[in-house]
UniProtKB/TrEMBL annotation:
<dbReference type="InterPro" id="IPR033934">
    <property type="entry name" value="SAICAR_synt_PurC"/>
</dbReference>
<dbReference type="GO" id="GO:0004639">
    <property type="term" value="F:phosphoribosylaminoimidazolesuccinocarboxamide synthase activity"/>
</dbReference>
<keyword id="KW-0547">Nucleotide-binding</keyword>
<dbReference type="InterPro" id="IPR001636">
    <property type="entry name" value="SAICAR_synth"/>
</dbReference>
<dbReference type="Pfam" id="PF01259">
    <property type="entry name" value="SAICAR_synt"/>
</dbReference>
<dbReference type="GO" id="GO:0005524">
    <property type="term" value="F:ATP binding"/>
</dbReference>
<dbReference type="InterPro" id="IPR018236">
    <property type="entry name" value="SAICAR_synthetase_CS"/>
</dbReference>
<dbReference type="InterPro" id="IPR050089">
    <property type="entry name" value="SAICAR_synthetase"/>
</dbReference>
<feature type="domain" description="SAICAR synthetase/ADE2 N-terminal">
    <location>
        <begin position="6"/>
        <end position="235"/>
    </location>
</feature>
<protein>
    <recommendedName>
        <fullName>Phosphoribosylaminoimidazole-succinocarboxamide synthase</fullName>
        <ecNumber>6.3.2.6</ecNumber>
    </recommendedName>
</protein>
<keyword id="KW-0436">Ligase</keyword>
<keyword id="KW-0067">ATP-binding</keyword>
<comment type="similarity">
    <text>Belongs to the SAICAR synthetase family.</text>
</comment>
<comment type="pathway">
    <text>Purine metabolism; IMP biosynthesis via de novo pathway; 5-amino-1-(5-phospho-D-ribosyl)imidazole-4-carboxamide from 5-amino-1-(5-phospho-D-ribosyl)imidazole-4-carboxylate: step 1/2.</text>
</comment>
<dbReference type="GO" id="GO:0009236">
    <property type="term" value="P:cobalamin biosynthetic process"/>
</dbReference>
<dbReference type="GO" id="GO:0006189">
    <property type="term" value="P:'de novo' IMP biosynthetic process"/>
</dbReference>
<dbReference type="GO" id="GO:0005829">
    <property type="term" value="C:cytosol"/>
</dbReference>
């Protein structure tokens, strides 16, 4: 097989040129990074789980009319996506205080917010993805006011969908981050959800026990990340058959 052209290698994924113009292949790696890549590890099976979970969320979003870059999953670790012009923002939606917001405002982790709060950080690893006000985004031309209005509307639809799906399997969607891309059609563009939606980019807490089922397990050394992601996939019914996970002892009455 001819060698594919690698377009970009990031912290969690590799992008290859796709089979047709305007398409890309996204390869999900097992690499985990946190704290702006200060902490790194290879977590066996993570890429396979995130590929499946991102497919599940993106196809679900498409089925309720939210446009995404997703075309189809190709194999265990790869999916075909539409190539987009990524808006250099992390769009963060919060339902409960956690992480940097809890720290910044001295709030208790898990405190409910009066309404979903959307914030933007500028995607730049060297700068540590700094939080930016809308004023900067418009002044520096990263997105127009119209884009921003559309991004907020998209992000809230993603939030409602994700919150509902997660609630259905006993998981609280505390917060998440998405990336938005532009697809150009002559002089016009439309916005789509791009990149990935997975436990790497969400905070997911078990509703009953409060147990963390997301990348905080890795950030805070709370146990096996693969077990946590496998649990999310299992509850959603998207567990790939050949992901190895340690069988647990079962009690027989
Ligand atoms: N459909 C797409 N078209 C073009 N670029 C994309 C698309 N989806 C995601 N990307 C970009 O590809 C990269 C994915 O790799 P990742 O490992 O997440 O990178 P990073 O370390 O920059 O977060 C990100 O920079 C993301 O913005
Ligand atoms: Mg990324």
């Amino acid at each position: 097989m001819a060698r594919r052209k690698k377009i970009y290698e990031g912290k969690a994924k590799i992008l290859y040129e796709g089979p047709e113009p305007g398409t890309l292949v996204q390869y999900f790696k097992d690499d985990a990074t946190a704290f702006n890549a200060e902490k790194k590890a290879v977590i066996e099976g993570k890429g396979v789980l995130n590929n499946r979970l991102s497919e599940f969320f993106m196809t679900g979003l498409q089925s309720i009319g939210v446009p995404t870059h997703f075309i189809k999953r190709l194999n265990m670790r790869e999916q075909l996506v539409r190539q987009v012009e990524i808006i250099p923002l992390e769009v963060i939606v919060r339902n409960f205080a956690a992480g940097s917001m809890a720290k910044r405002l001295g709030m208790e982790e898990g405190a409910p917010l009066p309404r979903p709060i959307i914030e933007f950080s500028y995607k730049d690893d060297k700068l540590g993805d700094p939080l930016v006000p809308e004023e900067y985004i418009i002044a520096f031309g990263w997105a127009s006011q119209q884009d921003l209005d559309d991004i907020v509307a998209l992000a809230l639809r993603v939030n409602d969908f994700m919150s509902g799906v997660m609630h259905g399997v006993g998981i609280k969607l505390v917060d998440f981050k998405i990336e938005i891309g532009r697809i150009w059609d002559n002089d016009f563009h439309r916005l789509v959800v791009a990149d990935e939606i997975s436990p790497d980019s969400c905070r997911l807490w078990d509703i009953e026990s409060g147990q963390k089922l997301d990348k905080d397990v890795f950030r805070k050394d709370l146990g096996s990340l693969t077990d946590a992601y496998t649990e999310v996939a299992r509850r959603l019914g998207v567990l790939p058959s050949n992901v190895t996970h340690r069988p647990r002892p079962t009690l027989i009455n």
